[in-house]
Each structure stands twice: as C-alpha cells, then as structure tokens.
Amino acid sequence: MTANIIDGKAIATAMRAEIAQNVRNMVEKGITPPGLAVILVGDDPASQIYVRNKKNDCIKVGFYTEEHLLPAVTSEEELKKLIIRLNQNPKIHGILLQLPLPAGLNEKAMLELIAPEKDVDCFHPLNVGNLFLGIPRFLPCTPAGVMEMLKYEKVNLQGKRAVVVGRSNIVGKPMALLLMNEHATVTICHSRTIDLPKITREADIVVVAIGKAKFLTEDMVSKGQIIIDVGQNRVGEKLVGDVDFDRVAQIVALITPVPGGVGPMTRAMLLKNTMQAERLARKG
Length: 284
Ligand code: NDP
Description:
Elements: E1 4-5, H1 8-28, E2 35-41, H2 45-61, E3 64-70, H3 76-88, E4 94-97, H4 107-113, H5 125-133, H6 141-152, E5 161-165, H7 172-181, E6 185-189, H8 196-201, E7 205-208, E8 226-229, E9 233-235, E10 238-240, H9 245-248, E11 254-255, H10 262-283
Parallel strand pairs: 1-11, 2-3, 2-4, 5-6, 5-7, 7-8, 8-11
Antiparallel strand pairs: 9-10
The protein binds NADPH dihydro-nicotinamide-adenine-dinucleotide phosphate.
C-alpha cells in the first residue's frame, strides 16, 4: 500500500487564501497592509529563486513588499545601514535576510541588527529565547509549517514518539521544541547518533532535516509512521528531499513529498508571521 501524501502545496494555498482575505478586510477598514522587506546579498541561484518566490507570495496576498538585491561585494557597513533603515520604516513589518550571506559578512551580527519585532524568521536571540521560554512572538517558519501540516492532518501528538534527525538552530532544535510543546516524547538525532535506523524505526513520527538526498531509506522506517521530509537538495535540475520517497512511501502511513511538502508551508508561515508582526505593531 502506498502512503497518504500530505499535500503541503494545497495546505499552503489555503493558508494564503485566508491571509489574502484578511488583508482585503484590513484594506476595507483603512488599515495599511503588512509589509515585508527581503534582502539578498550576492547572486546564489537557489537564493535568487527563494527570494523571487517570497516576493511573489507577498504580491499575491496583497502585502506591501520591497526587494533589496545587493552585490556580493557589499560591506557589513552598507548592509547594516540598510537593515537600520528598514527597522525604522513604518511600512515594513517584517525583514528577511536571505541566508547564506557571502563570505566576509558576519551572519550572526547582521541577523542581530534586525529589530526583534520585525524578525519574522525568528532568528534573533531574543525571539529564540522567548520561544524557548514558551512565550513566542513568532514561530520559526519551517518547524511551524510542519506543525501546521500535522494539525491539518489531525495528528494527535500527545504521548507520541517523535524523532527529529538534524539539530540545526533553524530547523532541528526548534522542531523538537514545538513537538515537545504538543506533548510528544522527542528524541533528537544527529551525525554522531549511534544506530539511527533503530531509533527512527521505533518512532511514530520522524522529521528529517539533514540536507542529504534520499538519506532516510526503507530499512529506517516502519508501518504506520508519519514521515516529514524537510530536506531540499539539488540533484542536477531536480529538487530532492532527505527521504527516499518512492520506497519509503510504500511502507509508512503519511509522508510529505519534495517538492510540494514542507517548502510551500515555510513560505506560508513567513506570510503568517508578517501578518502577526503588523498586528503587534498596530496594537502596541
Ligand atoms: P544544517 O546543515 O544546518 O544541519 C544539518 C543537521 O543534520 C546537523 O545537525 C547534522 O548533524 C545532521 N546530520 C548531517 N548528516 C547526518 C547523518 N548522516 N546522520 C544524522 N544526522 C546528520 O542543515 P539545516 O537544518 O539548515 O537544513 C537541513 C535540510 O533542510 C537542508 O536540506 C535544507 O536545505 C533544508 N531546509 C528546508 C527548508 C524548507 O523550507 N523546506 C528550510 C530550511 C532548511 P551535526 O549537528 O552532528 O553536524
């Protein structure tokens, strides 16, 4: 039997439609729509696609959007000036600095310059700390997108065994935290984990975020599981996940595809966070 596919693209489309309706309601009431500024430094082709998609998403839902495309030779001082200008711009509620930055620019320092109330990616230490304390202003887009998919599929996480493969600050760690907040029993695995297949086979839910094409193979899963594939790997012209989808889908109960799974949800959550940033700015 082939697993049911969690259609991230369709769920994200529904979320965008709801956001677009909210924006129309705001405009009718004379409220200025949310604004998102996207900054891209350099000419990394994958980043160019991500930035273009995010800009198009904003336009589709009626947000105000600014795209700042800077050359790879941009100095920290120039980038700093731009971020500060955007921090002060009342039309901008969210600022997204596309990563990775070219060598020579200090990612951590640049991210920390973004005003926490405009940090819609939830990368600022203050927002990360609030998330950890259980009082989040924003939820990090990718893990929040995964949670939204599980909610849509009516997955009850309470008491379930969840395994997160990958422990990055952007995906793995916050993913584990959000699953734990919903009362799952969470195990975090990484490159030094011993006997990973045994651990993943015993889980109810496996989230894979490591950046290795088709890493999670059929011998690492078992019947009835939910598999969430966060990975986005370019293999030639194709975008491939961290899961060997064709084989794993024959065994498990629910699975996300790549493309069309977590990726579109991440983008939808960015819009949701920008909405939230505008609401918080207006309500004070
Ligand atoms: P990082 O490179 O920051 O982290 C990778 C993690 O995977 C590390 O914790 C590493 O362990 C672990 N890892 C690497 N190899 C293995 C292995 N053989 N076994 C077990 N664990 C391993 O990656 P990110 O978290 O930033 O991204 C992960 C993937 O998710 C990428 O493909 C990225 O493109 C994708 N991504 C997708 C998004 C989306 O919207 N769909 C958004 C963000 C990322 P250790 O810590 O020990 O080194």
